[in-house]
Specification:
This protein is of the alpha+beta class. The protein contains nine helices and 15 strands. A five-stranded mixed beta barrel has the order 1-2-3-5-4.
Length: 375
């Protein structure tokens, strides 16, 4: 059984953390000519999938009306993985409204299946590391690490260095936590930098880098593996949303609000929405929309190496997330989630630059939480 399972994930270039029972996926409907039996779909990873008649009966299209299966051929719809048969390389999906709406029911459906569920989303901002680096006197120890992306830079110098480079560039640098940690600093967007803590384990005597590199619960064997499995997916997801037609390059949330209210005034019967990335919410994309006149609601989407984490679910592309938002925004459960959702931490850039030439001691990095940020 394990042999079939391992081969299955190897051939589809997925893992149990990126493709599992209960997750929402984007499915292209390729054949709905006989909806009385099955609706045939194709997933992004190339797998064939099907939806049984009973799991499609109350599916709603973008209009909010029940969709005729034949009318959605060759379109992409959101669906939840109901069953994975690795021996046959087939997947059973459900597109029932209730199944798409309620994530909690799927997570808890069978405790023995918990290995398939991704309960601990990997946000790429480590709160403890940020707390450590906001101290006024942070000590760094230079490291002798031979890698083209490693620099003996402080937090401030690393952002100065990346400021002139393209979005998506990054460096590894020493950590204020000591010689058994590194920090990855990533230019997530213009003037938006993310700092990720990397814990080193199993360092050989005289070695310069641990044989195991850990980011939260994920383990890597080298910096190159971190680049391939962690950095590159995050950068790709960030660039995808920044190039979307609904993305607004704004200098503040007030700019976004003014833009949406202006658009809403032109088309009062349509809910206008947009995405933006702001320096004060470094690990988030902001989804802003105007459901009522003179009101703008903000929600926050975490970008991880596994996709867009939104409403306790991971979405592998922005189209699937938008489809979910449009279909479920009117639902009472969706609105309750919005009301109780905690505000993301807000980071404020340093108040002053460190003195000239100061690199390894006394660097002022005043990062703090702003409790006055509105939801």
């Amino acid at each position: 059984v394990h042999g079939n399972e391992d081969l299955f994930y190897l051939l589809i270039s997925e893992s149990k953390q990126t493709f599992y029972r209960g997750m929402i996926v984007s499915a292209t409907v390729v054949n709905a000519k006989n909806p009385a039996v099955n609706i045939m779909c194709k997933l992004e990873n190339g797998l064939d999938a099907h939806i049984r008649k009973e799991d499609f009966m109350d599916f709603e299209g973008d209009s909010g009306m029940s969709a005729d299966p034949k009318s959605i051929e060759n379109t992409v719809i959101p669906a939840r993985i109901k069953q994975i048969c690795d021996s046959k390389f087939s997947v059973t999906l459900t597109a029932r409204k209730e199944d798409l709406r309620s994530h909690a029911e799927w997570v808890n459906i069978n405790p023995e299946d918990s290995k398939y569920f991704y309960r601990n989303p990997h946000d790429f901002e480590n709160k403890k590391m940020i707390e450590e680096e906001k101290r006024r006197s942070v000590k760094y120890t230079p490291r002798s690490i031979t890698h083209k992306k490693f620099k003996n830079y402080t937090l401030t110098k690393s952002t100065d260095y990346l400021n002139d480079l393209e979005v998506g560039e990054y460096i590894f640098r020493p950590s204020s936590k000591g010689e058994d940690h590194l920090t990855l600093t990533l230019k997530f967007f213009k003037n938006v930098y993310v700092h990720i803590d990397i814990k080193e384990e199993e360092k050989l005597p005289g070695g310069t880098l641990g044989q195991k590199l850990i980011i939260k619960t994920d383990t890597y064997e080298s910096l190159d593996e971190i680049i391939a499995r962690f950095v590159t997916p995050i950068v790709d997801y960030a660039k995808e949303i920044a190039s979307h037609r609904k993305f607004v390059d704004a200098i503040s949330i007030k700019t976004v609000e003014d833009y949406l209210l202006g658009e809403q005034a032109k088309v009062p019967n349509i809910i206008c929405y947009c995405f933006t990335i702001l320096p004060e919410n470094v690990q988030y994309v902001v989804l802003a929309y105007s459901p009522k006149k003179e009101k703008v609601v903000k929600e926050y989407i975490k970008v991880t190496q596994h996709g867009y984490y939104f409403h306790d679910q991971s979405f592998r592309n922005i189209a699937a997330l938008i489809s979910y938002f449009k279909q479920h925004f009117p639902d009472p459960e969706y609105q309750r989630w919005v009301k109780k959702n905690n505000k993301p931490p807000t980071l404020v850039v340093p108040r002053r630059e460190p003195p000239a030439g100061e690199q390894w001691a006394g660097v002022h990095e005043d990062w703090r939480s702003d409790p006055n940020t509105a939801q």
